[in-house]
């Protein structure tokens, strides 16, 4: 075995020892701290963005659900030539006066299920309708001034034309509106931006356009009222 061969073997042996030594030692404390720090930085940067994307997706989905609701309601009015009284004050999911108008849409075959959306409080039990999502058909309020909606009262008057001097509805008409309680204020503002093109801020009630909402509760949630149609 020549000198070159011996030197090569010696180098290989040293490298193997270093590799084995490295494998046995594992990660140093400094390396572990470094990895943890990188993970923490990535989490801090990416988590808010991920949450924002998820929230935006829910609001966009809600806007699409409202568009489908409007189509079904329009078809109902064309076929029936009127709107029933559905004030959403009861606890039933039936198409009765104290019930919900979306039950009429299901019964008439205009939609396959009761109205639902990705934001707000969604249940289909027999609890009070004022605490869960539903669709109302209310006697229109024929007044130029739109009062601030509350957590349970609203949806009978909207300022659709943004003219505070004239009423948008006349006596005897009915207004169909979606009632969406328990909505995060940020989601309500985003939905308002999609439907009305406004950029709201603060916790006060909104009374302009198709999408209105109550003043924010202590938990920073609001009740949203969305105009669907009137007849």
Into how many domains do the coordinates divide? Answer: 1
**What is the terminal-to-terminal distance?**
103 Å
Low-confidence stretches: none
Query: What is the helix fraction of residues, given as a range?
Result: 40-55%
Instruction: Count the beta strands.
Output: 4
- Taken from the alpha-carbon principal axes, the silhouette is elongated
Percentage beta strand: 5-15%
Largest sheet: 4 strands, antiparallel
One letter per element, helices H and strands E, the order comes to HHHEEHEE
Which structural class do the helices and strands define?
Answer: alpha+beta
Describe, in plain words, how this protein is organized in 3D.
The protein has one domain. It contains four helices and four strands; from the N terminus they run αααββαββ. It is of the alpha+beta class. Strands 1-2-4-3 form a four-stranded antiparallel beta sheet. α2 packs across α4. A hairpin with a 7-residue loop joins β3 and β4. It is elongated and about 105 Å long. The model has no long low-confidence stretch (mean pLDDT 90).
């Amino acid at each position: 075995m020549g000198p070159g061969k011996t030197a090569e073997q010696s180098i290989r042996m040293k490298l193997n020892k270093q590799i084995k030594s490295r494998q046995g030692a594992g990660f140093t404390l400094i390396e572990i701290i470094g990895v943890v720090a990188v993970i923490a930085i990535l989490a801090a940067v990416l988590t808010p963005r991920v949450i924002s994307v998820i929230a935006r997706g829910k609001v966009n989905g809600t806007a699409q659900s409202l568009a489908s609701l409007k189509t079904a309601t329009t078809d109902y009015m064309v076929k029936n030539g009127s709107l029933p009284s559905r004030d959403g004050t009861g606890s039933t999911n039936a198409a009765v006066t104290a019930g919900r108008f979306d039950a009429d849409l299901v019964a008439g075959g205009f939609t396959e299920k009761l109205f639902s959306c990705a934001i707000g409080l969604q249940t289909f039990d027999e609890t009070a309708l004022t605490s869960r999502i539903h669709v109302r058909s209310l006697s229109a309020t024929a007044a130029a001034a739109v009062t601030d909606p509350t957590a349970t009262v609203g949806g009978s008057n909207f300022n659709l034309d943004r003219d505070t001097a004239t009423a948008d509805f006349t006596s005897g008409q009915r207004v169909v509106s979606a009632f969406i309680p328990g909505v995060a204020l940020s989601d309500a503002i985003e939905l308002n931006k999609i439907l009305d093109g406004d950029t709201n801020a603060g916790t006060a009630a909104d009374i302009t356009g198709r999408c209105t909402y109550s003043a924010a509760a202590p938990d920073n949630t609001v009740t949203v009222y969305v105009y669907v149609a009137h007849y």
